[in-house]
Amino acid sequence: MNKVKQLLLGKEVDKGLLFRILMYLLLIDVAFIYLKPIIYMITTMIKSKQDLLDPAVIWVPMKLYAGHLIDALGMLDYWKGFTISVTVASLSALFQIISCAVAGYAFARLEFPFKKFWFAALLFTFIMPPQVTILPSILMFKEFGWINTYWPLIIPTLFGHGLKGALFVLIFRQFFSTLPKEMEEAARMDGAGALRIFFKVMLPISRSAIIVVFLFSFVWTWNDSYFPSMYMFGASDVPLSTSLSKLNAKLAMEAQEGGLRAFLEPIKMAASFFIILPLLVLYAFTQRWFVEGIERTGLVE
Amino acid sequence: MLARMKKTLQQNRWYPLNRATKTRRPIWRNTATLRKIEGSLFIAPWIFGFIAFVAFPLVYSLYMSFNLVKITVTGVHSSWVGIQYYREILFSDGGLLYDDLFPFLREALVIIPIILVFSLMIAILLNMKFYGRGLFRVIFFLPVIFSSGQIIDEFMEQGEGTLTIISDLKVDTFLQQYLPEMWLNPVQNVIGSFVLVLWYSGVQILIFLAGRQTISGSVYEAARIDGADPWSIFWKITLPGMAPFIFLNMIYTIVDLFTYPSNPIIGKVTTDNYGLSSALAWIYFMIVLLFIGIVLFIYSRINHKLATQR
Questions:
Q1: For chain B, what percentages of helix, strand and coil (3-state, to nearest 5) are there?
Q2: Do B199 and A34 lie within an 8 Å CB cutoff?
Q3: What is the DSSP string of A117-168?
Q4: Burial class of residue B127 (count of CB atoms within 10 Å of its CB; 0-12, 13-18, 19+)
Q5: What would the pLDDT profile of A64-80 be if each residue is shown by its tens digit?
Q6: Shortest CA distance to A194 belongs to which of B166, B288, B70, B39?
């Protein structure tokens, strides 16, 4: 009797069988909730006409059908959008890594006048909804002749701003302030300046923070449709995130003109799939470092 | 050896030996200013960016909110209208703001605790050692990749937002009986898109997971030796230790929720009427600040209480 009890409840609660079962149930449920849309997306986009109309077919299609995939690729103008998205997202990620690390290092370790004030400004930037400054920004970029180009998306990232730039500065600041001070002091004794210390000592050891910021920056820029739609409303070459809404509008129009309605969903799903596919691939390759990095950075204030 | 090195390092910190003259000079004579110049150089790009991309547009948007702004081929023309737009939004034409704001605020009040509790729970589970932990982590960080995009909206449109179990259990009729009317709709909305709420928790799970690692294992060890049961370990050690992260997550969730582009109020900041839109954006920003202010206040209270308890 006692043995059974121990097996079920364990010496400590989190070792017991009962707890384990409950935990796995919970984890699997939540994992299913997270995965279901992706499974749905993939199964829907490869359904053929018959499968879509057949109520008996819910998850597994009778046969594979690639027509919707090809349609979606064509309607998205995929390769053009893909090139633009990759360029914009990787440039902003790269710039944000460098500029936000520089700013974060300054906030963590260096002295400069009115430091407290500028730190308050950083926090302010973090909590300010971007919509407060969007209209003047549009006017400003128009003045520069940057509307309908990628510059409004990229240039601010050079200075540690841009999409969620403040958050990245905070992440780097946090990371640098947890490093032991002795490291820099040793370099200082050898006569190195802040610039050399930063590029030769600090940046090389901040791999985990860099990966976290890179992935967040890349993914968020890739997905963001708000800024492109505001700054590039008249452009014909847009990132993938915006071309999805264009595709939606196109499909809605076609649907109104008659027919096609049953095939809207698979095309939309195929388009969504192609848009997130590069992110999934990226995540598949980086997730190991990403998960580790999150733990080491202490993505923490 | 190391301790001695450290000691000499500290001793010489303020009066380093100048090798050439064999004298000690106070470091602040020249180095402190040098450090400040170095620091200023490092922060200069960020400050420039702040002025160009935050401060200037901010001031300009405040100015626009008091003006009738017309954009023509020749440039931007503005004529002063004073607080007319603010009055319009806040008092005369309430529909513009309040119709969306109040339901949204109520929803936010329901969503924020759900996200916090859910992500805390998941983070604690993911922190345990069990078979398949790596796989679960990979899956649970997926929302970080999706939740910012239009893809989510797409899923919601396909009805992926609801859990069938909720309609199976007839939660709706239950709610209708017990909730006051004002809260019924928001709660129904949140439950209707419950999956969405879970999808929003990606970054929060990460923050909690990172936070959980900051509580050292020896504290748990000690508690276990003292014979504390897991329930009280959670309430006495984990939760107080996580307090700063709960607070951080609360701020993050509020900011995220209130700046999400498909948020109803934000959708109204359009380019049709620059003055009115700017005023709306400012009012909205003040509400966000107020919200965060309240959280700060509550947090400082809790922190105070925790500090006195110890």
A1: 75, 5, 20
A2: yes
A3: HHHHHHHHHHHS-THHHHHHHHHHHHHHT-TTSSHHHHHHHHTT-STTHHHH
A4: middle
A5: 777 888 888 888 889 99
A6: B39
Alpha-helix runs per DSSP H in chain A:
2-9, 17-45, 49-53, 67-76, 78-109, 115-127, 131-144, 151-158, 165-178, 181-189, 194-196, 203-205, 207-223, 226-231, 240-256, 261-297
At residue B237, what is the residue type? I
Whose structure tokens read 């944000």? Answer: A96
Please report, for residues A22, A24, A26, B227, B232, the alpha-carbon distance to residue A7 in angstroms, rounded to integers and kept in the order given. 14, 17, 20, 19, 22
Please state whether B22 falls in left (phi above 0), alpha (psi between -120 and 50) or beta. left
Confidence of residue B17 (pLDDT cuts 50, 70, 90): low
**Residues B276, B88 contacting (CB under 8 angstroms):** yes
Task: Provide the pLDDT for residue B150.
Answer: 67
Give the pLDDT score at B42: 92
The token pair that represents A225 in the structure block: 């449709």
Which DSSP category does B16 fall into? P
Top pLDDT among B188 and B24 is at B188
Those residues whose C-beta lies under 8 Å from the C-beta of residue A205, and which sit 6 or more positions away, are: A179
The number of CA neighbours under 13 Å toward the Cβ of B117 is 5
Of the residues B12, B34, B41, B53, the best mutation for testing chain A's interface (the one with the most A CB atoms within 10 Å of its CB) is B53
pLDDT at A45: 83
Q: What angle do CA A27, A45, A258 make, to 5 degrees?
A: 130
What would the two tokens of residue A123 be? Answer: 């926090």
Helix axes B31-50 and A78-109, enclosed angle (nearest 10): 150
> Is the ipTM above a cut-off of 0.95?
no
Which letter does DSSP use for residue B95 in this model? G
**First and final C-alpha spacing in chain B:** 37
Asked whether the beta carbons of residue A31 and residue B230 sit closer than 8 angstroms, the reply is no
CA proximity to B171, closest of B138, B155, B194: B194
CB contact under 8 A, A159 and B52: yes
- Indicate the range of A79-88, A243-252, B8-17, B35-44 predicted with least confidence: B8-17
* B85–A contact, CB cutoff 8 A: no
Residues 6 or more apart whose CB falls under 8 angstroms from that of A202 comprise A105, A176, A179, A184
Distance CA B186, CA B109 (A): 9
Q: Mean of the per-residue pLDDT values for chain B?
A: 79
β-pairing verdict for B17-18 and B75-80? unpaired
Dihedral, A210, A216, A220, A222 alpha carbons, nearest 10:
60
pTM of structure:
0.84
Distance in Å, alpha carbon of A63 to nearest chain B alpha carbon: 22
Cα(A181)–Cα(A177) distance, integer angstroms: 8
* Closest CA relative to residue B201, chosen from B113, B105, B289: B113
Q: Which two tokens stand for residue A112?
A: 């400069």
* CA–CA dist A156, A162 (Å, integer): 5
Contact B50 A161 (CB under 8 A): yes
